[in-house]
Write a sequence for this structure.
C-alpha cells in the first residue's frame, strides 16, 4: 500500500489507512513508538497495562489455590 507524506502544521504526517490499522489492531489515540531501523520507519504499539476491572473481567474462575512444600526450615524461621 502506498501513501504520501503531507504537511501538517510545522510537521509532516502520514495517514494510516483503516485496513492497516485493523491489521495492526490499532485504533485512534493508541500510543505508539516510532523508530528508524536500518533506514526504515518502524511503528511499534505500546502495550497498555490492563486495569483491575479489565483483569477481573477476563477471570474465568479456573484458578484453585493450594499449598506447596518449601522444604524443611533452615535457620530461624518463625512458625
Amino acid at each position: 500500500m502506498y501513501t504520501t507524506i503531507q504537511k501538517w502544521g510545522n510537521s509532516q504526517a502520514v495517514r494510516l489507512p483503516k485496513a492497516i490499522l485493523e491489521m495492526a489492531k490499532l485504533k485512534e489515540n493508541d500510543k505508539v513508538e516510532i523508530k528508524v531501523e536500518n533506514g526504515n520507519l518502524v511503528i511499534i504499539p505500546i502495550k497498555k497495562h490492563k486495569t483491575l476491572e479489565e483483569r477481573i473481567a477476563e477471570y474465568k474462575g479456573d484458578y484453585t489455590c493450594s499449598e506447596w512444600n518449601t522444604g524443611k526450615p533452615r535457620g530461624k524461621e518463625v512458625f
Q: What stands out?
A: The chain has two helices and four strands. The CA atoms of residues 20 and 40 lie 17 Å apart. The chain has a mean pLDDT of 89.
